[in-house]
Amino acid sequence: MTTFEIDHDRATQAREHFKEAGVEEMVTVIEGDAHLRVSKLTGPIDLAFIGADKGGYVDYLGKLLPRIRPRGLLLAHNVDMVPDYVKA
Fold first, then answer.
1. For the segment 1-55, what is each residue's pLDDT rounded down to a tens digit?
2. How many structural domains are present in the chain?
3. Rounded to whole angstroms, how far apart are CA atoms 43 and 68?
4. Is 39 in the same domain as 74?
5. 3-state SS of the chain: helix, strand, coil percent to 5?
6. Do 49 and 85 have their domain in common?
7. 63 and 41 together in one domain
8. Is-contact 38 60, C-beta < 8 A?
C-alpha cells in the first residue's frame, strides 16, 4: 500500500501507527504534495482511495483513473461536496 501525506507530522504519526499495527513493511508513506507525486507511481493500481483536498479531486481522478487495473476500484470520500468530480 502506498499513501501520500503532505504534512510531516501526520506522515510521522501514520508511520508510527503502521508500525504499531505490524504492517510497516507493507506500507510506503510518501511525504509531499500528492498532486505532484502520484504521477510517479509505477505499475497498475488495484485500488485507490481519494480523501484529500476536495478542490483536487478532479485532478486526482484524471491522474489515477487511467492507471486503475481492469476490475480495479477507485473510491472517493465525500464526493457530494465535489460536484465537478461527480460530473467527471
1. 999 999 999 999 999 999 999 999 999 999 999 999 998 888 899 999 998 888 8
2. 2
3. 9
4. yes
5. 50, 25, 25
6. yes
7. yes
8. yes
Same domain (yes/no): 6, 43: no
> How many whole angstroms separate alpha carbon 73 and alpha carbon 49?
8
Q: Which residues of 43-77 are buried (b: 16+ CB within 10 A; e: fewer)?
A: eebeebebebebebbebbbebbeebeeeeeeeebe
Number of Cβ within a 10 Å radius of residue 30: 16
pTM for the full model? 0.81
Q: State the residue range of the domain holding 87.
A: 33-88
Closest C-alpha to 74, from 51, 54, 47: 47
Torsion of CA 5, 22, 45, 47, to 10 degrees: -90
